[in-house]
Write a structure and sequence with these properties.
Blueprint (H helix, E strand, L loop, with lengths): L1 E5 L4 H17 L4 E5 L2 H6 L7 E4 L2 E5 L5 H8 L1
Parallel strand pairs: 1-2
Antiparallel strand pairs: 1-3, 3-4
Length: 76
């Protein structure tokens, strides 16, 4: 499984990164987490608002900070 976190490094983007790491640890998953910070790459993927998260190439949420509980629901 591959999780991508889209964001330029703002406070909410960094918090989403921590929340993803928490959710993955709590579910005991082996995943590849990639941080996409380049604004052109973010836009080319169709993400217009950050922070955003994609699972296996599919954008699951954008423009909001998901809690670890919300992220776990996306990963199950």
């Amino acid at each position: 499984m591959k999780i991508e976190i889209f964001g330029t490094g703002c406070r909410k983007c960094k918090k989403l990164e921590r929340n993803v790491e928490t959710a993955v640890k709590e579910l005991d998953l082996k995943v590849n987490i990639e941080k996409v910070r380049d604004i052109n790459e973010i836009a080319s993927r169709g993400v217009m608002m950050t922070p955003a998260i994609a699972v296996d190439g599919e954008v699951k949420a954008s423009g909001k900070l998901l809690r670890p509980e919300d992220i776990k629901k996306l990963l199950k």
